[in-house]
Amino acid sequence: MCACRKAVLLDGGFSTQLVENVGEEVDGHPLWSARYLASHPKAVMQTHLDFLRAGAEVTITNTYQASIGGFKEHLGLSEEESLRLMRRAVELAKEAVDIYMKENPSCKVRPLIAGSVGPYGASLHDGSEYRGEYADTVSRQTLADWHRPRIETLVAAGVDLLALETIPAQKEAEVLVELIKDFPRVRAWISFSSKEPGEEMDIGSTNGFTEDYHQISHGELLRDVAHECWSRNSNQLVAVGVNCLNPKYVTSLFSRINEEGRPHIPLIVYPNSGEVYSPKTGWTDPDNVASVDSYVDEWLSLGVEYVGGCCRTNAEDIRRMRGHVDRWLKEGTFTGPMGIVSTNSSCITNSVGCH
């Protein structure tokens, strides 16, 4: 096993940065940022480019809330037109990467494009991706049938890997890690939404260890779900983790995943800003949170290999995170996003030196 350090920087909250490029509020629509694929494609491309210029090594397509049903209902598109719009999302990300590479001709490592695969609950537009109760009534076959067209389209359009993200329930996670076996050349990460303090917990304490902060949204323990997914498809998964949670709970959530005696799982985290969200009032309390980048050193030391931001994090947040990642990498060797291994200064030149 290579003992090299590894740290890959993802982009940030797409809708948050997109606001800067469309000049209007993005939240509140059933399609969220995905509607701008049709109305503001240049702004979508620019948002990817903003994150790449800030230092992101992976940019995630604007397809989190994209679905055939959603595009049909809210944009009046046919099934083929809906799939074409999903392909367009990948093309826009590729365009941004091409521009970035032309701007940085000495950069030897091309940024990767991850195809965003949001949960079934996101299409319901009722916050279900942060509860997951639909997993109790929606069949595995229905979940697989709903996810397949988008995954198939993203893979065919040429994404480098898939971001199976904000998954609230073990049932849907298992469906996804099994489904991607039908696309054996693609790799993916899977990240979960999670419960936070103040939410009802289904599990109390075990052997004196409090399970607070360790459940995904539907109630299963993160460590158990992570190992179940890894055991089902470690050949294609590059990492397992969490996204869109308050950053101050990350260390607690990850504390027992890689316990001694269990297979080691690469970890991924891209939290929100730590602000509080209410469906009625939106994001609140922005002045009472620590900067997301202030947690990066702690997470990397914990063994996190992929780090970035989610809702309410923008390109400037990613720029600051880039600084933390660079400093951390200089202390050792580095394994790049495609498994390229370098040491010290040459590592920085071959990967993050582009920024």
From TrEMBL:
Coiled coil: none
InterPro entries hit by this protein: BHMT-like, HCY_dom, HCY_dom_sf, Hcy_S-methyltransferase
Pfam families: S-methyl_trans (PF02574)
GO molecular function: S-adenosylmethionine-homocysteine S-methyltransferase activity; zinc ion binding
The protein's annotated pathway: Amino-acid biosynthesis; L-methionine biosynthesis via de novo pathway
Keywords per UniProt: Metal-binding, Methyltransferase, Transferase, Zinc
Binding site for Zn(2+): C244, C310, C311
Record flagged with keyword Cytoplasm: no
Ranges where the Hcy-binding domain occurs: 1-325
GO terms of biological process kind: methionine biosynthetic process; methylation; S-methylmethionine cycle
Keyword rRNA processing: no
Cofactors required: Zn(2+)
PANTHER family on file: HOMOCYSTEINE S-METHYLTRANSFERASE-LIKE ISOFORM 1, ZGC:172121
NCBIfam families: PRK09485.1
Name assigned to this protein: Homocysteine S-methyltransferase-like isoform X1
Source organism: Thrips palmi
